[in-house]
Amino acid sequence: MASHQESSALLSTAGPRKTAASTLVFISLAITTAVALSAAAAFSFLFFSSSSSPSPHSTEALSSRPLSKLKHPVVLIISSDGFRFGYQFKTDLPNINRLIRNGTAAELGLIPVFPTLTFPNHYSIVTGLYPPYHGIINNYFTDPIDGQVFNMGSHEPKWWLGEPLWETVSNHGLKASTYFWPGSEVHKGSWNCPSNYCMPYNESVPFEERVDTVLSYFDLPSDQIPSFMTLYFEDPDHQGHQYGPDDVRITNAVVEIDALMGRLIRGMEERGVFQDVNIILLGDHGMAGTCDKRVIALDDLAEWVKIPKEWVQSYTPLLSIRPPPGYSTSDIVAKMNEGLESGRVGNGEFLRVYLKEDLPSRLHYSDSYRIPPIVGLVGEGFTVKQTRSSGQECGGAHGYDNAFFSMRTIFIAHGPRFARGRKVPSFENVQIYNMVTRILKIDGASNNGSVSFADAVVLPTHSNLE
Ligand SMILES: *[C@@H]1O[C@H](CO)[C@@H](O)[C@H](O)[C@H]1NC(C)=O
Ligand SMILES: *[C@@H]1O[C@H](CO)[C@@H](O)[C@H](O)[C@H]1NC(C)=O
Ligand SMILES: *[C@@H]1O[C@H](CO)[C@@H](O)[C@H](O)[C@H]1NC(C)=O
Ligand SMILES: [Zn+2]
């Protein structure tokens, strides 16, 4: 690993003075997003502190609806990867709209955790933990202690901290099933990924087959029907990366997801369980359009500090850098920012680097030895590369600051424990773990969600009221 024995003379000391103007763009950007987050928090307070919201179903809004066919509560979480908040307005989506109209939805979307990447977010949804506490701090990273590499195919339990919902559920003697989810194949506690309930990841399995398998669980004897189920689709993330969020192929992919929801709803109706199942349809993150005109090249900083590619753990949209031992990380951060703010580095004002402990605390991205010491926040839609190239590629990316609206995804919940026709303010996905344990009436592991928030979104049962 650490084969770089060059001295810290790499750190040039002769950089030009920083100009205030270029920092303004980034700072005002950061302020705008911080305001958006605090507005969401304030709105949330107002919403939940008001005792009545006008609803056509105000009498039934007080408590959950009884189960008609199932003998125990069931939660099905469906993830549509990269379903950016707003995609649901691109065209008419009759099935998703049916879930929204008769369910509870986050009015301005679900807020992902930082970094807004697939593995960190999926694992936050099922553990209720911010990434430093569940350990999956990026889609791939190197453990700085033993040098081992985590990637999206790593199933060794040592990487996966926290207690995912399938483990919590089976620890309580209930059944869980996973039709794909990051971490679901990892053996933890009483969860050993049983072959009939835990599908090994295979992206070639047709989406319809995934839906039909989940439906088939409802044909099992009552005590074999899982209390908790997951279902995962790679779209529209796949199209979002290739074509960006505004392409017609996104609209087509979203129409397909809607058709899959139709297939699921019909299958449940045929089995008489649609009104009994708590369906949570969500995504892991959104998508921002990228273009090679919006590139920041690390090589352009050479006049201030040389950043060899061996130091870079990931480039974009999450820039993370681990210099070899012996280098001063605070010097590197200072030199990089000096160059970025100089006005002489292309798009420099759209990247700001931090020592991880100096990142805004709202990002919850410092408290893990796995996170490299230097982290960059990249402007929305910008791309960090080692070398400026002459490409003209456009596409989409995610991983940016979770305060950007473009990173938001959907939260749509339908079922006996969710009010019909209700909109709730945006919230972070770490709140979902407690909602599921509430619905299943089990004690969860300690996590970063708040029990009172879950109680405000999930309807109480009659027995809770009495
Ligand atoms: C919403 O639920 C009510 C009560 O079950 C039902 O009559 C109505 O058809 C549902 N609406 C939609 C759009 O599914
Ligand atoms: C993945 O799924 C496809 C389609 O069902 C199947 O043909 C293939 O054999 C599967 N691959 C593995 C490794 O199971
Ligand atoms: C998140 O939860 C974990 C586990 O309970 C705890 O150790 C950690 O301090 C929490 N962090 C925050 C920021 O709440
Ligand atoms: Zn993606």
UniProtKB/TrEMBL annotation:
Single GO term (MF): hydrolase activity
InterPro entries: Alkaline_phosphatase_core_sf, Phosphodiest/P_Trfase
CDD domains in alphabetical order: Enpp
Keyword Membrane (UniProt): yes
GO cellular component: vacuole
Membrane spanning stretches: 21-48
Annotated PANTHER family: BIS(5'-ADENOSYL)-TRIPHOSPHATASE, ECTONUCLEOTIDE PYROPHOSPHATASE/PHOSPHODIESTERASE
Name assigned to this protein: Ectonucleotide pyrophosphatase/phosphodiesterase family member 1/3
Organism: Salvia splendens (Scarlet sage)
